[in-house]
Design brief:
With about 550 residues, the chain is mainly α. Helix content is about 80%, strand content about 0%.
Length: about 550
């Protein structure tokens, strides 16, 4: 007490506020770094259950259509719409993901997420009750719009609701559930189409989606530190970037139509095919011009692509998923069409890829969470995937089980190891205000990968098959093979003896072309991984200890003062 100076002293008043200000700053920093309302225990389990059930619903819907398509075409006799049944959903997922990212920024996260689930269910009802082929496509489009929001929202919710140190593990679980449900989808779709009707591939979303809506509505609580960005309705509409969305969608549709008809229903030299191939880059350029003028309002703000960690991870995600989608869609064709397996046996034969993809995702999540490193796992992922796809490329009609199982083990584990790291990277290394938009960009690239590379694979497979038959087996009708191929197991009912051997040979030529392309894109991910910055995720445990130490030092200064 004897050391205290009068209130009017010139030295102490300036020092004390400084110490108090420092203490308040440290306390605030500690609170910001460690919010008190992250979900834990039962609350976190319930939230993750909601997200994972919704993710399983989305994964099933993306995969279930593949085995339902023959039943749909049998009823509506629209073989030319086969491509659209599959890619209509991916088109909307790709073009709307970034827009959803902006929506989650400006609207209530919980209710925007619920809206995406409702759109998925509405689209399912439209497709299930469809009186014609066009209605099925419209329903699939609405589903794609809902799925774009669901996938974006799931990752953003994990980021906001759980502690940052849990993100790699939780995103790994989320990714594993997504891929498992995606691959189980064709098995369930085949069972419904064969045993009941293809319409149940869509009706099933009603009893599955109802509990998901209830869980989200009653158990999903957004932490207090997560707040929507205030804006007027006019500002929100401008920030949603409707023109950018329209031109991106138009560019993807043009490419999809060109790849669907080129060399199959129309010649590559046909005027309509050339026009579509020209419009694709034109609309893409216009999209980037629009985004440039939109600035911060763009659904893909171009400044977000300037950091190497963002654009390199977005490219990695884009090319990594090429091999993923092509294996999922074309390895079953190898099993069913070439080897003559049933849909169920084909699914069983695909289990090594499924299991090791999930294992790779889990290992990646745990390893990243432990080491905070990202780039090394992306590099290892690319190397393993390249080796696995190379083994798939050398498969033959009569390859042994060991050859296709071993290839799946390498490719599946490699893809799983690196698949979710790009989203983890932009989540952990972006500025907080850019996190949702950057996440939307990466998810958009993932969906664009599904759109482009499924269509490219279809074009490669069909064109190589047709070319090989016309040049090597001119006595066989290539168009008859294509028409029969929509139901792969029917090949052996239509062709016999030498003709059957020729058709299987042509199938292998087409499938090898797909896997050769997958091999090229897998090798490209190795090169892209070398470009990705060698950065660690922030270690929040170290930050917490640092803040604690600083707080202790502050207390000592206050005591000494």
């Amino acid at each position: 007490m004897a050391d205290l100076k009068p209130l009017g002293s010139s030295s102490e008043p300036s020092a004390a506020p400084s110490i108090r200000s420092q203490r308040n700053d440290e306390t605030t920093a500690t609170d910001d770094a460690e919010p008190k309302d992250y979900a834990t225990g039962l609350k976190l389990f319930t939230v993750m259950l909601s997200i994972c059930l919704n993710t399983a619903l989305v994964g099933l819907e993306l995969g279930i259509i593949s085995t339902a398509i023959p039943g749909i075409t049998d009823q509506f006799h629209r073989i030319q719409d086969v491509g659209w049944y599959g890619c209509a959903t991916f088109l909307l997922v790709a073009s709307s993901s970034s827009m959803w990212g902006k929506a989650f920024k400006y609207f209530n996260l919980k209710y925007a997420y619920l809206l995406s689930i409702c759109l998925l269910i509405i689209g399912s009802i439209v497709s299930a009750a469809a009186p014609n082929s066009a209605s099925v496509i419209v329903g699939r489009t609405i589903q794609g719009l809902g799925i774009g929001g669901t996938l974006s929202g799931s990752v953003i919710l994990i980021n906001h609701v759980s502690h940052p140190r849990l993100h790699p593990m939780l995103i790994g679980i989320w990714t594993a559930i997504f891929i498992v449900s995606t691959i189980l989808g064709p098995l369930i779709g085949g069972a419904f189409t064969t045993g009941v009707t293809w319409r149940w591939c869509f009706w099933i979303n009603l009893p599955l989606g109802g509990p998901v809506i209830a869980l989200v509505l009653f158990f999903l609580h957004i932490p207090k530190h997560v707040k929507s960005t205030p804006a007027t309705w006019k500002e929100i509409l401008l920030h949603l970037d409707i023109p950018g969305f329209a031109f991106l969608l138009a560019s993807v549709v043009c490419l999809a139509l060109a790849l669907q008809q080129g060399g199959q229903t129309e010649l590559w030299s046909a005027g309509s095919t050339i026009a579509l191939l020209v419009l694709w880059p034109v609309f893409t350029i216009i999209f980037f011009v629009v985004e440039k003028f939109q600035g911060e309002r763009a659904m893909v703000p171009l400044r977000l692509l300037q950091p190497r960690v963002t654009w390199a991870n977005a490219l990695y995600c884009y090319f990594c998923n090429s091999a993923n989608y092509q294996i999922v869609f074309y390895l079953p064709i190898y099993f069913q069409a070439v080897r003559g397996d049933s849909a169920i046996i084909s699914g069983v034969n695909l289990l090594p890829f499924l299991a090791f993809f999930a294992l790779g995702a889990m290992v990646s999540g745990a390893a990243v969470g432990k080491t905070q490193h990202l780039q090394p796992f992306e590099l290892i992922s690319g190397l393993l995937t390249t080796a696995g796809v190379a083994l798939l490329y050398i498969l033959e009609v009569d390859s042994s089980m060991g050859r296709y199982v071993g290839a799946q083990v390498l490719a599946g584990f490699g893809l799983g190891l690196g698949n979710q790291i790009p989203i983890t990277a932009v989540q952990g290394l972006s500025k907080p205000e850019d996190m949702t938009s950057s996440s939307g960009i990466v998810l958009m690239m993932q969906a664009l990968s599904g759109t482009y590379f499924i269509l490219i694979a279809q074009s490669l497979w069909a064109n190589r098959l047709i070319s090989h038959i016309e040049t090597t087996y001119p006595s066989i009708s290539a168009q008859q093979v294509i028409a029969t191929g929509s139901g792969a197991n029917e090949i052996r009912n239509v062709f016999h003896g030498a003709e059957l051997a020729a058709v299987l040979d042509a199938y292998m030529v087409g499938i090898k072309a797909v896997f050769a392309f997958s091999l090229a894109t897998a090798a490209l991910t190795v090169l892209i991984a070398l470009i990705i910055p060698f950065k660690r995720l922030p270690d929040h445990r170290e930050k917490k200890l640092e803040h604690s130490n600083k707080a202790d030092e502050t207390k000592e200064k206050i005591s000494s003062a």
